[in-house]
Write a structure and sequence with these properties.
By secondary structure, the chain is an alpha+beta fold. It contains twelve helices and 14 strands. A hairpin with a 6-residue loop joins strand 8 (about 205) and strand 9 (about 215). The chain is globular and about 65 Å long. Keywords: Acyltransferase, Transferase. Pfam families: Thiolase_C (PF02803), Thiolase_N (PF00108). GO terms for molecular function: acetyl-CoA C-acyltransferase activity.
Length: about 400
């Protein structure tokens, strides 16, 4: 079979994920993006001047300067002659950028594309609209992180409420959520101890008055988390006694970036480059925004249909853990083997820098497949506003 037109992934990297106002909080999203773009190209052995385009997801762009993807590309040493585009599909941004790179190469509009995502939730500003002044009363500040990233635009509710809606619709218990969350923390703890993330993480040098500080480990995980400890936390979105979604069984508010380098397989062979995997298929879907966390269900089904794979033929799944509630619903509804899902833990423990997470789950999937010599993998995310996205990748 002629595979020369296939789109392959040459490299995949991410930064450590920082906590909200934590070790990476002094760096703008584009500065984190520059770190991964530079490293992804170095690992792929592609000179920056030979890149066709840079595509980076970012959700929180208020007051971050023109086109943060372009800023990241230039910061990584990509020349002025190479265009860059910022993409906002909320939590799906980082993976949608990969899809757009894939499409550009398939259409022969590009030969090598850097794709990924970047986010500094810590740097999202508060804002106030003052164009016409204020004749009377106070002018309130708006938290752009909350409004642009974490609040449903159609029902004016926090994403956590959409998780509570799933709890009710799918009859998911608090115990199920806490068990899933504890397992995620425990898997991440074991993965960190075993060095499973070492290959995918590129250290970040954070400038400081006394010189740069190297950050090379995810700082959001809570070591020693147990179901018993999680059970003591109070629900934070519905507080009348009927809620069950807590800070402990939800993903975090975080900073980070991730990137991959895509190329046509013929281009990679011509350059003598070895691919990590090739893209087989992808799909996106829309769902009711009030249960946005179920978006991966139709997206995965559609992607698998395009790939002509069955559920059982997939070796590994990386599903973004926005909330334990939606994760349990997705795993249950699709009939997935839990032992194949997020084998190194997920966003509940690692964190969820929203514009970067789509690329982050793909990066982790690719490195897990390589480490365990697995052939087929699927990365998928739910998306605020009621959507889902999924990508199928395969190794030789």
């Amino acid at each position: 079979m002629d595979t020369s037109s296939r789109v392959v992934i040459l490299s995949a990297v991410r930064t450590p994920i920082g906590t909200f106002n934590g070790s990476l909080s002094s760096m703008a999203a584009h500065e984190l993006g520059a770190v991964v773009v530079r490293e992804a190209l170095a690992r792929a052995r592609v000179p920056p001047a030979e890149v066709s385009e840079v595509l980076l997801g970012q959700v929180l762009t208020a007051a971050q300067g023109q086109n943060p993807a372009r800023q990241a590309a230039m910061g990584a040493g990509v020349p002025y002659t190479v265009p860059a585009t910022s993409i906002n599909m909320l939590c799906g941004s980082g993976l949608r950028s990969v899809v757009m790179g894939y499409q550009a190469i398939k259409m022969e509009d590009a030969s090598v594309v850097v794709c990924g995502g970047q986010e500094s939730m810590s740097c999202a500003p508060h804002s106030v609209h003052m164009r016409n002044g204020t004749k009377m009363g106070s002018a309130s500040l708006v938290d752009t992180m909350m409004v642009d990233g974490l609040t449903d635009a159609f029902h004016n509710c926090h994403m956590g409420i959409t998780a509570e809606n799933i709890v009710k619709k799918w009859n998911i218990t608090r115990a199920q959520q806490d068990a899933f969350a504890a397992k995620s923390q425990q898997k991440v703890e074991e993965s960190q101890k075993s060095g499973h993330f070492d290959q995918e993480i590129v250290p970040v040098l954070v400038p400081g008055k006394k010189g740069p500080t190297e950050v090379k480990v995810d700082e959001f995980p809570r070591v020693g988390t147990t179901v018993e400890a999680l059970a003591r936390l109070r629900p934070c979105f519905i507080t009348d006694g009927s809620g069950s979604v807590t800070a402990g069984n939800s993903s975090g508010i975080n900073d980070g970036a991730a990137a991959v380098v895509l190329a046509r397989e013929s281009e990679a062979k011509q350059r003598g480059l070895e691919a990590m995997a090739h893209i087989v298929a992808w799909a996106q879907a829309g769902v009711d925004p009030t249960i946005m966390g179920t978006g991966p269900i139709p997206a995965v089904k559609a992607a698998l249909k395009k790939a002509e794979w069955s559920i059982d033929e997939v070796d590994l799944w990386e599903l973004n853990e926005a909330f334990a509630a939606q994760s349990v619903a997705v795993v249950t509804e699709l009939g997935l083997d839990p032992e194949k899902v997020n084998i190194s833990g997920g966003a509940i423990a690692l964190g969820h820098p929203i514009g970067a997470s789509g690329a982050r789950v793909l990066v982790t999937l690719l490195h897990s497949m390589a480490r365990l010599n697995k052939k087929r993998g699927v990365a998928a995310l739910c998306i605020g506003g009621g959507m889902g996205i999924a990508l199928c990748v395969a190794r030789p």
